[in-house]
Write a structure and sequence with these properties.
mainly beta, Metal Binding Protein, Guanine Nucleotide Exchange Factor, Chain A, 15 strands
């Protein structure tokens, strides 16, 4: 499969093709919020971004950024070749549940220890995620949890035909 042609990054932008592989974790001071059913269920200015070649950043929020009783652990796990075993949560508010919309790494592998006690959210499974007030666009494909903002350019892995990138 041919490697895609990276889009040129403008002033203040990052190209996901400049992100490393294996990925790295970078702190972010941006205001990150997650909304479900019209309620802000998580908010922080102390998130972490996982940056990986061809992927928009995935934001990991401190567990303490989530409202009380919103995170409900569910059965099942997946495995990431870089970060280890992921455990999942439903996001639950009185009027709504976003099934398996969040995940964490209870025992992150070497190099990803910073993700301990942090939770990522799949933007496509909640009403709205924002970064510094900008509404996030979900990474296509339903498998990856990248957050697309005007700050990053692609093309992004996820849509059909991009599995081999």
């Amino acid at each position: 499969m041919r490697r895609p042609v990276p889009e040129p990054a403008g002033a203040g932008q990052e190209s996901v093709w400049d992100y490393p592989r294996p990925p790295r974790v970078a702190p972010s001071p941006e205001r990150v919020e997650v909304e479900l059913g019209g309620i802000v269920v998580a908010s922080t200015d102390r998130s972490l971004r996982v940056l990986e070649t061809s992927h928009p950043p995935t934001y990991y929020l401190p567990r303490s950024a989530f409202a009380a009783d919103v995170l409900h652990a569910v059965v099942g796990a997946t495995y990431c070749e870089w970060k280890g075993r992921a455990a999942y949560f439903d996001l639950v508010i009185p009027r709504r549940t976003a099934a398996r919309a969040a995940w964490t790494y209870p025992e992150p592998t070497g190099g990803f220890e910073a993700l301990l006690d942090h939770v990522a959210v799949m933007p496509a499974l909640v009403d709205r995620c924002t970064v510094d007030g900008e509404v996030v666009r979900a990474q296509e494909g339903g498998f990856y949890g990248g957050w697309i903002t005007d700050r990053v350019v692609g093309p992004f892995k996820g849509p059909p035909g991009s599995w081999g990138w």
